[in-house]
Specification:
The complex is a heterodimer of chains A (138) and B (378). With 138 residues, chain A is of the alpha/beta class. Chain A contains five helices and five strands. Chain A has a five-stranded parallel sheet, sandwiched between helices. The two termini of chain A are 20 Å apart. The chains are: A alpha/beta (138), B alpha/beta (378).
Chain lengths: 138, 378
């Protein structure tokens, strides 16, 4: 059932995108990627994204700024965001959750950890949508 | 316990427990219970219903991995999400934690909003999953009722069929006696007795028919029953419509006993036989036949029900056990009969049901339903 879910990976380093894609490639998700915040907004505008893997350290807009913009917009605030970062300083992790991130994964990834976290948040969002639809009488 | 969510914290260091409690108490959603050993944790999960377990790894004598394994292997605790909370931050331990079935792994020292966010995520996910399960259960129950109502409708048709003949005999005989009395015709005692006896026998038959049908709709407990009896009861219940449709039913049954609800097996058999009957009605054949074979194979009782109605279209044969799948017009099929049959066989008899098309004598083709029922049920 998760087959058609779309995961967007946002990272300015192509190798990092490649690593994440390789880990998730057998999970049946459709994967899209962006190397900048601007490109990410474009993709989000034109696709029904189910989850975003978001790097923090990026030129121009950084991951936190992108997250804050998405969480302020009614159309995109429901998309779960998992931060990916090489830094594991306390202020980063704390901030990631404070601004509405769903989870935080430190690079280098442990494969099963990334896979399970993506699965958890996609399932949670799917069930949330299901119940919201029911409450609205669909 | 009130309606808050229950969290179990397992850690041999009380300071760690205190820290986690202080953080989780902040959002006032959780009832927290703690233990300082794996053994005690396994005891607690028997006493309370937990929505999440925070589990330390390095503990003596039973470590967190072992506790996790035991919880995941137990049907009763399998669905409780487990988050490892450990100072072990090497890749091997984290991978092992996830592989054992934990939903998350948090390394110590952790941040308070990190702990809260991850706990919230998995408690919420469990609440959604539980409620979904509840809904599916309810849906199943409704479907079972719906199927029973449909069966009842068919039963009424059957009762009408079965009552026709005895009622007409009773009417004829009694009106014969009445007329002879009115006309003061002398009837010898033996004839009169024979007539009254005839009425009695037929009235008993009517009463027996009612008992058979009543028995089918009664809620009963599991019993040991003979498959042959169940098949005979089933045929009794629907024989009149089979006769009405000129369908010959043949059975080869071996004396085989099963444990379970015999009425549910009758319901399954009626669903399958009615399905065959509908196919035969449509087939406009002259020799309409349904064959029932019962035999033992290994530790299973096998019931085969086959017809010579031409078989099931290959396009639909893989879908016929799906709910609301029907090829019949809306007033003929609810589309849940075979779905219910499968559910009953799988869930109440631990068995299996499948269907295949078979080649018969004289180039005839038919459908064969096979029920595999384990004889030694728990």
């Amino acid at each position: 059932m998760l087959n058609s879910k779309i995961v967007l990976i946002v990272d300015d380093v192509p190798t990092n995108i490649q690593v994440a894609m390789n880990i998730l490639k057998n999970e049946g998700y459709k994967m899209l990627f962006a190397q900048s915040g601007k490109k990410a907004f474009d993709i989000i505008e034109n696709n029904e994204i189910d989850l975003i893997l978001l790097d923090i350290m990026m030129p121009e807009l950084n991951g936190f700024e992108i997250c804050e913009i998405l969480k302020k917009d009614n159309k995109t605030k429901q998309i779960p965001i998992i931060f990916l970062s090489g830094k594991d300083s306390s202020s980063d992790i704390e901030k990631a959750y404070e601004i509405g991130g769903s989870d935080y994964v430190v690079k280098p990834f442990i494969n099963i950890e990334l896979i399970k976290k993506v699965h958890t948040h996609i399932t949670l969002k799917k069930l949330q949508n299901l119940y919201e639809r029911e409450e609205n009488g669909f | 316990m009130d309606s808050k969510y229950n969290i179990l914290i397992v850690d041999d260091d009380v300071n760690n427990i205190q820290l986690a409690i202080n953080i989780l108490k902040q959002n006032n959603k959780y009832n927290i219970i703690f233990t300082t050993s794996g053994k005690e944790a396994l005891q607690r999960v028997k006493e309370y219903e937990f929505d999440l377990i925070l589990l330390d790894i390095l503990m003596e004598p039973m470590d967190g991995f072992e506790v996790c394994k035991k919880l995941i292997n137990d049907k009763k605790t399998l669905d409780i999400p487990i988050i490892f909370l450990s100072a072990k931050d090497d890749e091997q331990s984290i991978t092992k934690g996830f592989e054992l079935g934990a939903v998350d792994y948090i390394t110590k020292p952790f941040f308070s909003n990190e702990l809260i966010a991850r706990v919230n995520t998995h408690v919420q996910l469990k609440v959604y999953k539980d409620s979904l399960k509840q809904k599916l259960k309810l849906q199943d129950k409704l479907m079972l009722e719906q199927n029973k109502m449909a069966a009842m409708g068919e039963m009424i048709t059957n009762i009408a069929h079965q009552w026709k003949q005895p009622l007409s005999i009773i009417t004829t005989v009694s009106s014969g006696i009445k007329v002879s009395k009115e006309l003061d015709m002398s009837v010898d005692k033996d004839t009169e007795l024979a007539s009254l006896n005839n009425i009695l026998v037929n009235a008993k038959h009517l009463s027996q028919t009612i008992d058979d049908f009543k028995d089918f709709f009664e809620h009963k407990d599991k019993t040991i029953f003979n498959i042959e009896d169940v098949i005979n009861k089933t045929i009794n219940l629907i024989n009149s419509t089979l006769m009405h449709n000129s369908i010959k039913i043949t059975k080869n049954t071996k004396n085989t006993k099963l444990i379970g609800l015999d009425n549910e097996l009758i319901q399954v058999l009626i669903n399958i036989i009615n399905n065959a009957q509908d196919a035969l009605k449509d087939s406009k054949k002259n020799n309409k036949e349904i064959t029932i074979n019962v035999y033992k194979k290994d530790s299973n009782a096998i019931i085969e029900i086959s017809d010579n109605a031409g078989g099931i279209n290959n396009k639909i044969i893989n879908h016929i056990f799906e709910a609301y799948y029907t090829t019949k017009s809306s007033n003929n099929g609810t589309g849940i009969g075979l779905h219910m049959a499968k559910k009953i066989i799988q869930e109440h008899f631990d068995g299996e049901i499948y269907v295949e098309n078979i080649n018969l004598k004289q180039e005839q083709v038919g459908a064969k339903f096979v029920l595999v029922l384990p004889i030694e049920t728990k």
